[in-house]
Amino acid sequence: MAFFVALLLVGVYSSAAGLLGGGGGGNGRLEQNSVPDEYVDLVQTWGNLCPELSPALLAAQIQQESGWNATARSHADAQGIAQFIPGTWATHGLDANGDGVADVWDPEDAIPSSANYSCSLAAQLRGVPGDPVDNMLAGYNAGPYAVIQYGGVPPFNETQHYVQVIRTAEESFTAPAAEAEPARLPPSHAAAAAVHFAQEQLGTPYLWGGDGGPEDNGRFDCSGLTKAAYEEVGIELPRVANDQWHAGPHPGRDELLPGDLVFFAHDLNDSRSIYHVGIYVGGGYMIDAPYTGAVIRFDPIDTADYFGATRPVAG
């Protein structure tokens, strides 16, 4: 099983279905035996990344891109299971499994990166006329500027075929409604935007005391990142992690939503010993600025020093 069995991330993109007007991609569960066993957790987890995506849609897209061939290479030098061209991978490739390398040939990186890139496109194309899911897929195939230029799916045979094939195949990967999980509670607009801000900082080097300003070259420490993320949406947090603990109510572990702050402490009975904070993105993962020498990244929250969570509130 993959190192990270999880990132419902989101959340990371922005909200749950309906918050930002996304078309939604399905009921959230895969049909049994529709995806190779070794990729089920990856697709199920990352397929819930944003309102426009679903596990079934992500599976249909990978089926179309490579037929689940992790070593596929096209005549245009699209590489790996998700068929990234090198330039796109350089910008959107993630080290999602935390092994220190963003590897286009590793499905544990490439499948999450495909979801992340799709949701980035979806966010960029919101407001373009037409179906937001179709526009997202068209952007993946033809580039977002073609979708913007033509006000929807561009009149390219390849792109129109790509969208049609994936939308049709999506149905075969979708579990019947009776098998689907209950709909998850959407995060607030503020939480969604805070998560999006944190996602935009992925790969930024850590800086002790960093607030992300010009004097810090855009770098953050852990609580500097969380403070800046919520500052973007008008919620003022204290500067240090153990003070941020008191910035709102404390949801239980099974009540976490994307955007919640998650805390880690030396003494699990004393909030004064909190030493680290991240922004929860779903599926047992957070985005955090971990320590000197590291970069802002995804990390699991299920560790022995997990202290609890806070849901920031205005005022």
UniProtKB/TrEMBL annotation:
InterPro entries: Lysozyme-like_dom_sf, NLP_P60_dom, Papain-like_cys_pep_sf, PG_Endopeptidase_C40, Transglycosylase_SLT_dom_1. Residues 188-315 form the NlpC/P60 domain. CDD domains: Slt35-like. The keyword Hydrolase applies. Keywords: Hydrolase, Protease, Thiol protease. One of its GO terms (biological process) is proteolysis. This is Transglycosylase SLT domain-containing protein.
